[in-house]
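Deliverable D4.2, example record:
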Amino acid sequence: MDQMPKGPMCESCGMPLDEKSTSQKDKRYGIYCQNQETGELATYEQVYDGSVQAAVSMMGMTEEAAKKMADDMLPKLPRWAKA
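Output generated by the structure prediction step:
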């Protein structure tokens, strides 16, 4: 059920990466998590809010379900995982 996408994914938000969505500043991240001019990474709150909004608008999830998914997924990603 918890199936990870095959291929590269953003270490900050989990979005699958391709030629168009991969950051030019750091290949570990996507263009939505890293500013392409400054290289600055989005904060956890920005990534969380963006993930919730994307799940609601693109996946048709309720806000509650989208928040649960973000709560479950983001802490497991390399950028946010506790060592």
